Amino acid sequence: MFPNIQKKDYRVLDLIRQREIQDSVTHIILQKLHVTENLISRLGLEKELNGHSGCVNCLEWNETGQVLASASDDKDIILWDPFRYEKKLVLHSGHRGNIFSVKFMPKSNDSVLVSGAADCRIRVHDLTLSESIFTCKCHKQRIKRIATVPSIPFLFWSAGEDGLFLQYDIRTPHVCKSNDHSVLVNLVYHTGCYAEGKCIAVNPRKPELIAIGANDAYIRMYDRRMIKLSQIPPSPSIHDNSNGGNISTYRAGKGDPDDNIPLGSAQYFIAGHLRSRDGTRSITTTYLTFSDDGNELLVNMGGEQIYLFDINDSNSSKKIFGSSWRSPGSIEQDQRLDEYYMKQNDVDKTGDFVDKNVKILPPHVEEIKRLANEGFEQQKYSLAINLYNKAISNCPTAAVLFANRAAAYMKRAWDGDIYAALRDCKTTLLLDPEHVKAHFRLARCLFDLNRPIEADKVLKSFKQKFPEYASNSACRALKMDIKEAIDAGKDITQTRQTFLPLSEYEQEWRHNTIDYKMRFCGHCNTTTDIKEANFFGNNGQYIVAGSDDGSFFIWDRNTTNIVRVLRGDERIVNCLQPHPSMCLLATSGIDPVIRLWSPWPEDGSVNEREIQNLDDAASANQIRMNSDPFELMLMNMGYRFPVPQHEFSDEDSEDQHDQPITQALNCRPS
């Protein structure tokens, strides 16, 4: 029999020979050769396509990849031949506002396009007639996204900033009247009058599943088979487009009038630390997309990081703290949560987790760990985290690696790092329940996440389990800090308030959310609300996303490490659309051009658009995300601010938990 080519790294010639012998493996070979490490390392600018006179807000490949559509602030839609670098068609859309989304209708021979714009209009264009054959004005605010799915040639969906997500069937006449039943989801009914729709995506393998993003941290996925389409809500008597929000208060936060969305039809996702996030920076979902196999959901969070969710984890525990946190001693007992985190690290659910702990690392992993520890000692925390990521991808059941990465996360303290450290502490304790520093760091993380009551319980459990460390200076200092925070009423679970009305269903959906599977850091997404993130490669081997610094980032999907950063725009990169079958990437942003990126020949040419220091670029973006407008202006003028270091009151000694700890339990890795 033929060997399994999916599990072996063949040379290209071997793969081509295999394709000649066994025709059935052609698709698998195309997947393996679509985007490879070598091709990514040679990716560079191939061509700039000039034709628009404004920001290019959206890009879309047709199904075969022979045509690229673009739309812009100039209100034109251009179809390009990406291989001849020529315009095939310039379509004057008829829109009176910036175009934010354009899609080919499936199975239409690329002759039907759908566009949505800031004029609150959706237009369906017949390219053979070069005119609009359908115009919808049901939305009362800007339309940010259009969605289609390859297997359904007659349906499309829209997301509008009026909080409405509409479904259209081009086989039937559409009348923009209040009695028209085209509303799939009305977020205003569930989250209040300020709800805004930002993005929408349909699962390519299970087209009944639709995911939507709004101007909050929750990702919502619905089974549309269970939803009864509802009527367009009454228009508000006063409407002000300048305020950026929907001011209609009809049934705001009171739920659907006819129970159109059953309780069991929705599943919510959220990065755990965003559930009770404090601070003034708003969180908005700017883009989401399903993986090619339909099992994962990639989300670009405005004001935060990029997250990958497993949509099939509905039976696993949803929260790492809050109501699911029963007691500090439940770390080993919370089986559902345990299984969730072990699944994220490719550990079989069955069996004893402790038996799976790898105490003696393979030589190559031990060397990576040594380099990571050196980076930690030199306070190069991002470098250390990247190396621990690589080590964990090679050895996903070694407690020491998770414990060390947690320490590095706590020191770096980027957005979401403390919560990521808490997750790593949990995983460490699953594999090694006697790990002293993981217990202590768990309490520290909860305290830093403004949960002193839970931190107090964990710290008491720590002192009972390890009484020899109860008098440690770091332990005493943390105990005092926790007591002070509790006395001052700083526990976020006790002080959190909901200022907007939420429907009963919305409260239940938010209670049963699924946490993220992976996190990708380094870009900045605060300035525009159309910034995309996409899978690159048929197997989703890489993640790509634009940034406010004019660059776009490429991450390795398995390690979550940044592998390339390229300069894609003079100001901001918003759109990145990979070619469906080639290693070709189309990008656009504030510049009125589209840029095509493909692998360069191996001739020693210097790529002047490549950012060499990846850690510096990522650190600068972290500062940018947390800067006030004046600091941001200075950064754009070329000023640089020092990277803030997360301060702890305790210093660590070597992580040998069988030795006395005289200083702290928190910092130095193993």
Helix content: 25-40%
Low-pLDDT segments, ≥5 res = 237-247, 321-351, 643-668
- Report the CATH architecture of the domain at 327-448 and 452-490: Alpha Horseshoe
CATH topology name of the domain at 327-448 and 452-490: Serine Threonine Protein Phosphatase 5, Tetratricopeptide repeat
Shape: globular
End-to-end Cα distance: 46 Å
The CATH homologous superfamily of the domain at 327-448 and 452-490 corresponds to Tetratricopeptide repeat domain
- How are the strands of the largest sheet arranged? 10-11-12-13-17
Please report the total strand number as a whole number: 30
Q: At the first level of CATH, what is the class of the domain at 327-448 and 452-490?
A: Mainly Alpha
Main sheet properties: 5 strands, antiparallel
Mean pLDDT: 85
Class based on secondary structure composition and strand pairing: alpha+beta
Counting DSSP H or I runs of 4 or more residues, the number of helices is 16
- The fraction of residues in strands falls at 25-35%
Radius of gyration: 26 Å
Structural description of this entry:
Residues 659-670 have a biased composition (Polar residues). The protein is an alpha+beta fold and 670 residues long. Among the domains are: 53-137, Beta Barrel (Thrombin, subunit H), CATH 2.40.10; 327-448 and 452-490, Tetratricopeptide repeat domain (Serine Threonine Protein Phosphatase 5, Tetratricopeptide repeat, Alpha Horseshoe), CATH 1.25.40. 25% of the residues lie in helices and 25% in strands. It is built from 16 helices and 30 strands. Strands 10-11-12-13-17 form a 5-stranded antiparallel sheet. The chain has a 5-stranded mixed sheet with strand order 14-15-16-18-22. Helix 7 runs antiparallel to helix 8 (399-412), helix 8 (399-412) runs antiparallel to helix 9 and helix 11 (452-465) runs antiparallel to helix 12. The chain is globular and about 80 Å long. 47% of the residues are buried. The model is unreliable at 237-247, 321-351 and 643-668 (pLDDT under 50).
